[in-house]
């Protein structure tokens, strides 16, 4: 058994078990026999190569014969030498005839120790300890115990248990202790050597081509320190730099002052120039280390950078380490950091961090405190080795006193070793039957994600959307000009028979309310809500509560087995058990990958989920152990870059990440790699976050730590960037689930539609009550008295001509007009004449008949008169309507109008500016037609079809009649309009409009969220509020008020105030005192805002959901705003929660306001700048970023449409070039005989 850990040889200790006592003499005799046999063979064989081979073969035979685990003591295995980069600059390829024999490698290995001893002064302490460490010299405590002999078992009279003793030879112990003392002496000499000369001040510089950065700031070279600093540098140049191959010398302060433009080879002249440069050094201000590092990293062919710092750098240690880490990727340039006579601990910490980040070394020199020198890297490593030796010597003293002789210690160690081989889950509480085989359930259907399920069972799919139901009976509000009365008339039908209702696009429509239809509609909504609730219950049951729905056919499960989850190992295993039992059986292929610092897969490739494979995977999961950090990218790469799976054309479709924290890699690196691997491959990453308690400070510390909110944001972005889903759970239940969120959004729609139906019904009842004031007192009318009808008396006899005259009447009159008494009133009402009077003028006559301007004159009377003697000259002819559409040249204003983007687009959209390309090319005369010719039995196109290019416009084949110069003119106009759009976009993103949007109302109140979650952004919010007050409110003369809300609400003033200079200063002073704390009482703030009847708009700025239910907030706002129509403009401030953003968007939509989202990492400014500076040559790059605010989104859609039209116009122009090329292609002609005058053509043949 191994108590103290295995050494480099991999040998077993003599404490491997009690039975070794019996086999020890036999194994020792075998080893002595093997030694003698090897010595005899060495004497017989003269060749050195055969001698080595025979030794190896004899050792292998001896191991086979003895069948023991004991290795030969004379065959130590050297530690593997790490790869070292070979300098190739200026190197020449070897000549083929200079290649030596392979045995030269063995000779070089034997000379390695001698070379190491010779080159000890050019080695670092790490390199020197590779052949001088305690482990290498086999002076560890394990090596000492291996020299002992296990005694026989003896009972202990006090405990009643068997005890065991280890016997050591006095000579072996003394020899071992002597070697340890020699090692201490050797280490002490090494430390003394490191404290000599310039190595005491600057440490041992071992690289060949170095860069020296000397701190020449005022703090380092002032106060009489410059002379001592110069002397130290001169000593360094003479002693160490002169032995190097290349040098580059730089002094830095506020600016960088290099001596040479590039690295110089060391010679006498270069050394003298370096000394002169050192003597010319003078104070240069601050200590801009980052600027000096940027300058140095541009150099090539350097091995190390020596930083000599005597003051605190201007930049922070985190910034410098991050820069060194990024610049060091792919370049092995270690930093040799020297703290020169500096008592500031921040300088020492910064230099130590820089050295560790680059894999270099740290040295500290202080003239006043000698103890600081021993904190350097080279000396501290040797001191640790000395401490190891002293611990072993103390153990030897204890052994001589008999404190190591108890067999109880060895037995306990042996038990602990055996226990360490057991799975970690054995030491945790487990549910009943945790180790039992799986009880696999075979699903009879293939589950769907909530997005796919909503497409089939959603409100729109079932045609239960309120706007779909009301659309047949909804009529738009119209206002038209009536030529007869010469004025505009508005539709008034809603006042009598209809109800005004706000549509989803913000317009107001007149709706006819059918009460019975709405009653049936509400019954269907209730049934749909019960269906959605059953779906939510199903999603929150079984393994779906933990993993969500597993829908893909080929899946890979990534399990986080980091050391932070060691207490939750059983929970992880139980979760995987439920998943394998309930959701894996109906898949095609699956695999499980566990990752910590290392990544382990259950199988190299995905396997079919048979019962045998599932049971085998479960047994593999039971043996998993937690350890290391979270190397997510390694596991993800193993899942997506499996060459064997790709060769069998089996690709993974879904990857389910089951983790409790953020990965080791940065979120940007993870998302970039995920997008690259999943784009175009159909692979989706689904992130499942199981929430654990806060990490214990005394427990395992993860590789990268983040609080639970940041962790959720990280995993949510990783899942959504690949089109996957995010699921967040803890022991109490589900915290967040994309699947459940989609269903709950449909439930919210149902509730919202139900409230609107109730509003419609209430408005109808209210209108009915207003029309009939005594509606409550009205009673049913009594039934009319029933009298028996009697036959009419017969008509008097009339003359035959009268009867014939009546027969001449129309048949219709006979049927409709029965005979009535003369005293009865006529049933027919006089109908208005539907025809226009003859005297009335036709209002469309001016449009139909164009005027012809002409002038008449009298002709000369002396000539023959023709007609009436007058003549007419036509000055203006009627213009014929042109079928061709000209390219409009719109006029766009240069100044920005204070209005919403919706209103601005109504005036300056592409269609309003008559630049809609589809309308320009889709005229009635452009249609492509084919007629069927019976004689040819086929469809034949017209001849003009071969002249004009054919294009597809919305599914219809048209002929392009716009000429190339017209298309070019169209491109010019659209580019001009697009530049105006981009300037408008830049204006919307400038100043306070970036955060608050455009303030277009004259009386408004601002609700500012100051809850605890706003604490990181309070300084930014205060600056933006000050900018809002001066930039928009004061400049536009807006009456305003402000309310801050957290746990309670506090208003700046009791009502809105004019934006005078005094009020603006007072408002800014009030906002500067805002502090973040408490909850988010959004509903109370809205109630306070609606209490002011002078306002016409509310601007709500928040970073998350309210404390109360979002449905209740929407319902209360709808009640308060029923008769007032106050617009609520919702502003999302640095909020990435989709649920909160959806609530704010719905709140703005319900009240007719606008939704605006402010993000810190917004790149729309860069997009607009690139387009304006680089032009519109590329229709796709740069890509339009996601614009989520209403104003930005509408303008972004118009920008995308303009770029699309430009690309189409260029494509249409290219069709003309293709047509010209095809028509100008020379056709093969027949060889004709030239015609000659005076001779017939036949004679030439």
UniProtKB/TrEMBL annotation:
Residues 1-88, 786-835, 1216-1245 are annotated as: Disordered. InterPro entries: VWF_A, vWFA_dom_sf. Residues 1003-1180 form the VWFA domain. Pfam families: VWA_3. Residues 48-72 have a biased composition (Acidic residues). CDD domains: vWFA. PROSITE patterns: VWFA. Residues 35-47, 804-816 have a biased composition (Basic and acidic residues). Residues 1216-1225 have a biased composition (Polar residues). It comes from the Eukaryota. This is VWFA domain-containing protein. It comes from Potamilus streckersoni.
């Amino acid at each position: 058994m191994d108590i103290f850990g295995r050494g480099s040889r991999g040998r077993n200790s003599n404490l491997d078990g009690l039975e070794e006592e019996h086999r020890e003499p036999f194994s020792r005799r075998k080893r002595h026999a093997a030694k003698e046999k090897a010595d005899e063979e060495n004497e017989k064989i003269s060749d050195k190569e055969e001698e080595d081979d025979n030794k190896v073969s004899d050792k292998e035979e001896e191991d086979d014969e003895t069948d023991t685990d004991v290795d030969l003591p004379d065959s130590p295995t050297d530690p593997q030498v790490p790869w070292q980069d070979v300098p190739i600059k200026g190197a020449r390829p070897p000549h083929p005839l200079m290649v030596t024999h392979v045995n030269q490698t063995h000779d070089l290995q034997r000379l390695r120790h001698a070379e190491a001893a010779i080159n000890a002064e050019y080695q670092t302490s790490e390199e020197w300890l590779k052949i001088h460490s305690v482990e290498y010299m086999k002076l560890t405590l394990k090596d000492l115990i291996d020299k002992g002999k296990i005694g026989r078992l003896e009972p202990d009279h006090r405990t009643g248990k068997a005890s065991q003793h280890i016997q050591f030879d006095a000579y072996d112990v003394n020899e071992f202790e002597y070697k340890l003392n020699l090692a201490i002496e050797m280490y002490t000499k090494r430390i003394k050597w490191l404290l000599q000369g310039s190595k005491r001040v600057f440490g041992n510089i071992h690289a060949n081509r170095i860069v020296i950065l000397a701190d020449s700031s005022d703090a380092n070279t002032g106060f009489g320190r410059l002379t001592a600093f110069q002397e130290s540098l001169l000593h360094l140049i003479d002693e160490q730099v002169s032995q190097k191959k290349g040098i580059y010398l730089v002094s830095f302060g506020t600016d960088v002052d290099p001596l040479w433009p590039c690295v110089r080879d060391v010679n006498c002249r270069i050394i003298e120039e370096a000394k002169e440069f050192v003597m010319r050094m003078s104070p240069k201000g601050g200590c801009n280390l980052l600027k000096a590092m940027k300058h140095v990293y541009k150099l090539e062919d350097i091995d190390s950078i020596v930083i000599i710092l005597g003051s605190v750098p201007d930049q922070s240690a985190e910034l410098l380490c991050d820069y060194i880490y990024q610049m060091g990727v792919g370049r092995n340039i270690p930093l040799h950091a020297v703290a020169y006579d500096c008592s500031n601990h921040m300088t020492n910490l910064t230099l130590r961090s820089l050295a560790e980040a680059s894999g270099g070394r740290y040295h500290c020199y202080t003239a006043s405190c000698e103890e600081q020198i021993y904190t350097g890297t080279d000396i501290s490593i040797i001191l640790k080795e000395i401490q190891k030796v002293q611990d072993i010597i103390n153990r030897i003293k204890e052994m001589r006193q008999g404190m190591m002789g108890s067999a109880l210690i060895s037995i306990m160690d042996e038990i602990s070793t055996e226990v360490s081989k057991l799975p970690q889950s054995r030491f945790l509480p487990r549910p009943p039957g945790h180790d039992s085989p799986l009880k696999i359930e075979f699903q009879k259907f293939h589950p769907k994600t909530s997005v796919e399920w909503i497409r089939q069972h959603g409100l729109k799919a079932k045609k239960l959307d309120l706007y779909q139901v009301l659309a047949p009976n909804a009529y738009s509000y119209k206002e038209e000009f009536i030529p007869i009365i010469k004025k505009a008339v508005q539709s008034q039908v809603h006042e009598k028979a209809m109800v005004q209702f706000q549509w989803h696009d913000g317009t107001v429509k007149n709706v006819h309310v059918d009460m019975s239809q709405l009653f049936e509609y509400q019954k269907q909504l209730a049934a749909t809500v019960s269906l959605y609730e059953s779906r939510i219950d199903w999603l929150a049951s079984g393994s779906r509560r933990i993993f969500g729905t597993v829908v893909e056919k080929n899946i890979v499960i990534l399990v986080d087995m980091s050391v932070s989850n060691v207490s939750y190992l059983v929970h992880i295993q139980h979760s995987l058990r439920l998943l394998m039992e309930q959701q894996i059986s109906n898949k095609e292929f699956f695999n499980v990958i566990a990752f910590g610092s290392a990544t382990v897969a259950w199988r190299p490739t995905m396997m079919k989920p048979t019962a045998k494979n599932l049971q085998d995977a479960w047994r593999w999961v039971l043996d998993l152990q937690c350890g290391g950090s979270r190397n997510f990218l390694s596991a993800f790469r193993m899942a997506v870059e499996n060459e064997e799976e790709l060769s069998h054309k089996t690709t993974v479709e879904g990857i389910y990440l089951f983790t409790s924290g953020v990965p080791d890699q940065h979120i940007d690196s993870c998302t970039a790699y995920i997008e690259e691997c999943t784009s175009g491959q159909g692979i989706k990453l689904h992130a499942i976050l199981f929430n654990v308690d806060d990490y214990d400070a005394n427990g395992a510390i993860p590789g990268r730590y983040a609080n639970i909110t940041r962790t959720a944001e990280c995993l949510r972005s990783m899942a959504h960037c690949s089109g996957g889903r995010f699921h967040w759970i803890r022991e109490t239940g589900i915290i967040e689930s994309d699947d459940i969120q989609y269903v709950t959004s449909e439930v919210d729609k149902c509730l919202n539609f139900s409230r609107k139906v109730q509003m419609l019904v209430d408005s109808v009842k209210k209108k009915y009550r207003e029309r009939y004031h005594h509606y409550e007192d009205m009673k049913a009318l009594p039934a009319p008295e029933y009298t028996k009808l009697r036959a009419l008396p017969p008509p008097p006899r009339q003359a035959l001509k009268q009867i014939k005259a009546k027969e001449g009447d129309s048949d219709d009159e006979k049927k409709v007009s029965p005979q009535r008494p003369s005293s009865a009133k006529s049933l027919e009402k006089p109908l208005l004449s539907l025809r226009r009077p003859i005297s009335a003028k036709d209002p469309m006559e001016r449009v139909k008949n164009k005027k012809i301007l002409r002038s008449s004159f009298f002709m000369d009377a002396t000539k023959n008169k023709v007609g009436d003697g007058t003549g007419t000259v036509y000055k203006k002819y009627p213009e014929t309507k042109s079928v061709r559409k000209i390219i409009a040249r719109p006029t766009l204003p240069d100044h920005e109008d204070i209005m919403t983007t919706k209103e601005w687009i109504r005036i300056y959209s592409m269609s309003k500016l008559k630049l809609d390309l589809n309308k320009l090319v889709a005229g009635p005369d452009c249609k492509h037609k084919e007629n069927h010719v019976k004689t040819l039995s086929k469809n034949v196109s017209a001849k003009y079809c071969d002249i004009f290019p054919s294009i597809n416009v919305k599914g219809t084949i048209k002929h392009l009649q716009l000429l190339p110069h017209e298309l070019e003119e169209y491109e010019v106009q659209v580019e001009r309009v697009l530049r105006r759009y981009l300037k408008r976009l830049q204006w919307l993103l400038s100043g306070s409009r970036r955060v608050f949007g455009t303030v277009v109302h004259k009386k408004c109140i601002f609700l500012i969220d100051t809850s605890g979650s706003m604490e990181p952004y309070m300084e930014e919010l205060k600056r933006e509020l000050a900018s809002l007050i001066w930039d928009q409110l004061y400049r536009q003369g807006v009456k305003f008020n402000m309310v801050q809300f957290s746990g309670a609400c506090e208003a700046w003033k009791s009502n809105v105030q004019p934006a005078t200079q005094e009020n603006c200063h007072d408002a800014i002073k009030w906002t500067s005192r805002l502090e973040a704390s408490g909850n988010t009482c959004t509903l109370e703030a809205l109630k306070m805002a609606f209490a002011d009847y002078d306002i016409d708009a509310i601007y709500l700025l928040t970073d998350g959901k309210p404390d109360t239910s979002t449905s209740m907030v929407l319902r209360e706002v709808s009640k308060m705003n029923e008769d007032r129509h106050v617009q609520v403009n919702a502003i999302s401030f640095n909020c990435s929660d989709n649920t909160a953003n959806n609530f704010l968007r719905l709140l703005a939509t319900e009240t007719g306001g606008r939704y605006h989202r402010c993000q810190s990492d917004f790149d729309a400014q860069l997009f607009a700048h690139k387009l304006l500076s680089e032009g519109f040559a590329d229709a796709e790059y740069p890509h339009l970023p996601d614009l989520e605010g209403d104003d930005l989104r509408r303008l972004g859609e118009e920008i995308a449409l303009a770029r699309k039209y430009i690309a189409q116009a260029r494509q249409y122009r290219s069709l003309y070039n293709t047509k010209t090329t095809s028509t100008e292609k020379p056709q093969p002609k027949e060889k004709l005989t030239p015609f000659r005058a005076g001779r017939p053509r036949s004679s030439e043949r």
